[in-house]
Structures are given as C-alpha cells and as structure tokens.
Amino acid sequence: MMNRTSIKPLGRSGTSLVAMKRLNNTSSFSLAQAPVSAAKTKGGNQPSSTPTYIEFPTSPQPPDDHTGYHANHNGTIVHHTHSKHPLAEITLSELFTCSGCKEFGTGRRYACQDCDYQLHHFCALSPPSLKAHPFHGQHQLVFHAKPKQVKAGIAWSRCDVCCKSTKGFTFRCRVNSCNFQMHPCCAMLSTEIKFPNHPHQLKVLPPGNALLGGAGGGHDQSGMVCGECNKKRSSGRVYSCKVCDYHLHALCAKSMINGLQEYGIKPPEKPNMLGTAARLASQVVIEFIGGLIEGFGEGVGEVLIQNIGRGRRSSNRRRIA
Prior knowledge:
Blueprint: H1 17-25, E1 69-71, E2 77-79, E3 88-97, E4 104-111, E5 118-120, H2 121-124, E6 129-130, E7 141-144, E8 170-173, E9 181-182, H3 184-187, E10 192-193, E11 202-204, E12 238-241, E13 247-249, H4 250-253, H5 273-294, H6 300-320
Antiparallel strand pairs: 1-2, 3-4, 4-5, 6-7, 7-8, 8-9, 10-11, 11-12, 12-13
Helix pairs in contact: 5-6
C-alpha cells in the first residue's frame, strides 16, 4: 500500500495528492469575508457566505458589477474560465501554480474539487477593468483571460511592472497603440507599500532607468541591488526607501500579495535552458572524444555509435533527475 507521506506533487499546480484529498473530503466549502490584508489563517478554510470583493488600488466597479464570475448560494463561485465546475475558497500551505495567470502562489485560493484547477483569490475576483491605476493612470486597463498572441519564434510578452512573462490573465491597456500590461498580482501593488522585511515605507520609482533626483538620487535604476533577492535588474519597477539605501524589485514585492512571503516560501527558479543544453552538448563531445582515444583499435565507426548513444543516455538521465 502506498505511503501517503511519499506521494509527490501532481500536475502543474504543485498541489500534492494529500492536499487535494483534504480538499475533496471537505464537506462544505466557504468563502472568506475578510479583505485580502486580513486573511491570515493558515492551513484551513475560513467560513463565510459571500465572495470577497477584491479591491485593487483602483477598482471602478462595485462588488455586484463583476462579470467574470457568478456567486452561488452555497458560497462557491463559477468562474467564466472554468464554468463546468464551481470553485471554492480554501487556504492551503502548499505551493501551486495559478491556472489563470500561470504564476506561483500559496495560502488563500479558489480551487475546484473535481479537477486540478486553482486560481489566486485576486485572479478569481478580478474586476473587468481598472481606471486610473497608479502604474498606468492615463488609460483604462481591461482584464483579459488569454495572453497576447505569440508568434512562432517570438518570446512571450512581459509585464510592465515585474517584467515576467504574461502567459495567462492580464490587465491590458484598452488603447491599441499602447502596449502596457500587467499581471493581476502586480495590479494589487500600489505606489507606496510597507514590505514586512523592511521597517520603512517604500515608494515606487518612476519607470525607466534614467532617474533625476527624488528617491532615486539620480542613480541608474539598473545598478540598484534589491534588498530581498540581492540581484540587479535592468527592467521592471523598483521600490525605494526614503530613509535608507534600500531597494526592492516589484517582482520581489509580489511575494506579499501571492502568499509566498507569509508562508516563507521562495518561488522555484526555472533552469536556464540554454545553459543546460550547452552542458549536455559539452558532455556528449567529451565522452565522444574520450571514446575515440581509447578505441582506435575497435574501429572509429563502432566507437562513434557507442559514444553518441552513451551521450544520449546521459542526457536523458539528467532530464529525468
């Protein structure tokens, strides 16, 4: 009989089978009444009767004007991107990938008990549009469930706030000539934030690298080291402290929105595919040359076949590992 503690995560969401069993065994699902900043209970469901209205920095629609989802009488919702099954709000400590925006999250979420579909709470309850958002106040932003069309050979478009790829839910500028877009999680950020790991208020710097005076001190934004990840970034928005020389990437600030900071979870880093391919190719060449040196008496053709096969097996083992 399989030991439950040894069960590995299932599917792209990263939610374990044990967690999904806990979800399925819940007799009744309910939604939290508390606003996003007050949802602090870990590891369990929070009782309520109606869905929470997510307030972005600017949300022009009242709570009953959301067209993206329908609230059921039993506390679940039916989201327009997953209309075949209802979604219930739960809180689990397991890391998951949001089926909407394709980004990581943990803690509070809307989940389907029939299939592996989960949404951040702010993705599930996003309003259809945002007016005068502090990151793009000149135009209205419209919610889109699907990302911009990606042509063959061209990389995914990127969020103008965190500079990560936009592969799912986004808020995009309704003006065709304007390409501004951002993740729902980034839309939850504002121009001034209080990050838990820093004692002072942080203010977002103007977009771009050329900063003249103000909080940026006239320094090049690309040369600023983030106090959270200790890295430099040449793009994306940056928060700066008015009191001390502390900077925070918007990419790192998102951890206080998606639950990762509260649960002490670092998002898994994606491997460098180019570097991995180069290492595998180098290993194949090294093994091939070594085999040639050892096997002159065996015939070059035979050694060529053996070493290419060995290199492929080694590459497969690395991918599996």
